[in-house]
Design goal:
Elements lengths: L12 H7 L3 H123 L5 H108 L5 H18 L1
Helix pairs in contact: 1-2, 2-3, 3-4
Pfam family, one: Ufd2P_core
InterPro entries: Ub_conjug_fac_E4_core (IPR019474)
GO molecular function: ubiquitin-ubiquitin ligase activity
């Protein structure tokens, strides 16, 4: 807004009286001057009003455009937010699956280490059993030497030996059962590793297949262009051959016209043979 304009001052009574000696003329002149001043002021007010109206319309148009752009920006922001939420969900899902796979691998490794520990423990027990067996064999040999002197004790030792053998057989069966369990857990670990390798191989295979398909598409596109070039070449050759055939047919017709004095049958046979030769050459 500019500075407030000061309306023109009306003439005073002394100025009007000084300019005319007639009071009526002075009053009329004063009223006319005031009317013109008010008319000019009213015109200025109307001009300012029009200017302010135009400015208000321009500002309203700018406001509407800004509101439309704001709505568009909000829609774009909402779409980007939805895409971001979707990507965040996908990342969370992939992280969860990755954590589950790592947890499964840790569990399988723990089971394998536990199986190795149990196997080592049973190996130690087998060594101890072998030492016991060796001692029992030594006792048996000693008992054989003292067989005649200590027959009764020998019979008791034989019973004890049979009992120990039964225990050894039982231990062997237990060892076989534990070996089966260890083999089972090893198979489980190998199965998990094979599954991971299989998934990796399938991923690499899909990448290679995609590359091969792109290569095949490029090769087929190249062959199509070459075939189109070949078709254009053969079409040109066909047009040339057709023109040659038309010339030959015209020559045959001309030769037929020169042979008009000959009998009809021989002339027709020769014309037919010439046409056949023309078709064969074509």
């Amino acid at each position: 807004m500019g500075e407030k304009e000061i309306p023109p001052a009306l003439p005073t009574k002394s100025q009007v009286v000084g300019s005319s000696t007639n009071p009526y003329e002075a009053y009329t002149s004063c009223v006319a001057t005031a009317y013109h001043a008010l008319k000019n002021r009213f015109s200025q007010i109307l001009q300012k009003n029009d200017s302010l109206t135009k400015k208000q319309r321009s500002l309203r148009r700018q406001l509407d455009q800004a509101q439309r752009e704001n709505t568009k920006i909000r829609s774009e922001r909402q779409r980007l937010q939805e895409n971001y939420n979707k990507l965040a969900k996908d990342i969370g899902r992939v992280s969860t699956e990755k954590s589950q796979i790592y947890a499964q691998l840790e569990h399988e490794r723990f089971q394998r280490e536990l199986g190795d520990l149990v196997l080592d423990q049973y190996k130690d027990e087998i060594i101890e059993r072998n030492e016991v067996i060796e001692r029992e064999v030594f006792k048996k040999e000693l008992s054989d030497l003292l067989l005649e002197q200590y027959r009764g004790e020998i019979e008791e030792q034989k019973k004890s030996l049979r009992k120990n053998e039964l225990q050894i057989a039982s231990c062997g069966r237990q060892m076989f059962a534990f070996s089966s369990q260890v083999s089972y857990w090893r198979q489980r670990v190998n199965l998990g590793e094979d599954q991971i390798c299989k998934l990796t191989s399938e991923l690499e295979h899909s990448k290679g297949e995609m590359h091969r398909q792109n290569t095949t598409i490029a090769r087929l596109e190249k062959e199509r262009r070459e075939a189109m070039d070949g078709c254009s070449f053969f079409q040109a050759e066909i047009r040339k051959l057709k023109a040659t055939y038309d010339k030959l047919e015209m020559r045959v017709d001309a030769l037929g016209a020169t042979d008009a004095t000959e009998p009809d049958e021989p002339r027709k046979r020769r014309a037919t043979k010439k046409r056949r030769r023309g078709h064969t050459s074509q």
